[in-house]
């Protein structure tokens, strides 16, 4: 499936004297500056593969090209990802698809990143009974308590409470219901 999507978005080879066909593609681009970097995203969507792919309810496929440039040193990072959606071209034009993809990363960065990196959940190798699920619930509780206290920087709060256990206990005991 990935190969079919990649081929769709590659330039069509043409013999001399012939021109490429007009593909059914739509494009949206955003450029943003923030967090010390310049970010450019280009999403190209097409409905051409909906009858070809063996995937239930697929309506569109897309190619998302991302480019980040660090402002302080000019270092450039680029990547390309491919995706598919059950939303039709009328329901989700490229601008909306780009927005939906960004929103998904907001969830990843907001919750999963905190759990995976800050609380090191992915490093945990506990595999006995329900222990992994219980640790996940504890991590969610910790994040919830910190956010309820107005903490903006979870890693900093984690270090602070690790160094001052009495404050950590008081934070749990005094948490408003």
Q: How much helix is in the residues?
A: 25-40%
Query: What is the CATH C level class of the domain at 1-91, in words?
Result: Mainly Beta
SSE succession: HEEEEHHHH
- CATH architectural name of the domain at 1-91: Single Sheet
* Proportion of residues in β-strands: 15-25%
Assign an overall shape: elongated
CATH superfamily of the domain at 1-91: CAC2371-like domains
Largest sheet: 4 strands, antiparallel
Task: Explain what the structure shows.
- The protein is elongated.
- It is of the alpha+beta class and 177 residues long.
- It has a 4-stranded antiparallel β-sheet, with helices on both faces.
- It has a domain at 1-91: CAC2371-like domains (S-adenosyl-L-methionine-dependent methyltransferases, Single Sheet), CATH 2.20.130.10.
- The protein has 5 helices and 4 strands.
Key attributes of the depicted protein:
177 residues, alpha+beta, S-adenosyl-L-methionine-dependent methyltransferases, four-stranded antiparallel β-sheet, 39% helix, elongated
The gist of it:
The chain is of the alpha+beta class and 177 residues long. 39% of the residues lie in helices and 23% in strands.
Q: What's the layout of helices and strands?
A:
Elements: H1 2-8, E1 25-34, E2 37-46, E3 60-70, E4 76-85, H2 94-118, H3 131-148, H4 154-163, H5 165-173
Antiparallel strand pairs: 1-2, 2-3, 3-4
């Amino acid at each position: 499936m990935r190969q079919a999507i990649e081929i769709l978005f590659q330039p069509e080879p043409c013999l001399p004297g012939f021109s490429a066909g007009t593909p059914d593609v739509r494009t949206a681009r955003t450029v943003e500056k923030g967090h010390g970097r310049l970010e450019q995203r280009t999403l190209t969507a097409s409905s051409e593969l909906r009858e070809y792919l063996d995937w239930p309810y697929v309506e569109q496929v897309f190619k998302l090209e991302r480019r980040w440039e660090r402002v302080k040193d000019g270092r450039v990072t680029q990547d390309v990802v491919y995706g598919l959606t059950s939303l039709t071209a009328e329901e989700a034009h490229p601008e909306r698809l780009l927005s939906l993809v960004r929103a998904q990363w907001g969830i990843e960065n907001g919750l999963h990143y905190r759990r995976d990196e800050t609380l090191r959940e992915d490093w945990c190798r506990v595999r006995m009974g329900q222990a992994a699920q219980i640790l996940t619930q504890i991590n969610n509780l910790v994040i919830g308590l910190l956010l309820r206290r107005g903490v903006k920087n979870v890693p900093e709060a984690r270090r602070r409470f690790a160094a001052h256990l009495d404050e950590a206990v008081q934070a749990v005991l005094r948490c408003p219901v």
